[in-house]
Design brief:
Helix content is 38%, strand content 16%. It has a four-stranded parallel sheet, with helices on one face. It comes from marine metagenome.
């Protein structure tokens, strides 16, 4: 039985704790993982989960209008890039990554 979730901290800990199946899946990923729009609702916990599951390199890209999200991700082991994805030149300057997760939305 899962532990009782009594706080946001408990929830994040539960969400970022990789199962054996997640660890296995991540171990089979070749190359870096880049998450576009990492500072949104799902991005921070997904990025931390990937790091905790053993991903070799996780790159999180966002505008990071909230600097605390950027600091949180860096502390979790995510390499961050602050940029506006709506600017084509910014997109072209991103490092190559064979695995891209698109979580960016337009408000």
């Amino acid at each position: 039985m899962s532990p009782c979730i009594e706080s946001e901290t408990d929830l994040v800990a539960q969400m970022t704790n990789p199962s054996p199946a997640v660890r296995k899946a991540v171990s089979e990923v070749d190359g870096d993982i880049m998450i576009l729009g990492v500072a949104g609702k799902m991005g921070p916990t997904l990025a931390e989960l990937l790091v905790r599951a053993g991903a070799k390199r996780v790159i999180g890209v966002s505008r990071f209008s909230d600097e605390t999200q950027k600091a949180y991700l860096e502390q979790a082991g995510v390499e961050t890039i602050k940029t506006d994805l709506l600017n084509e030149e910014n997109l072209e300057s991103l490092p190559h990554a064979p695995n891209i997760m698109l979580l960016a939305g337009y408000k």
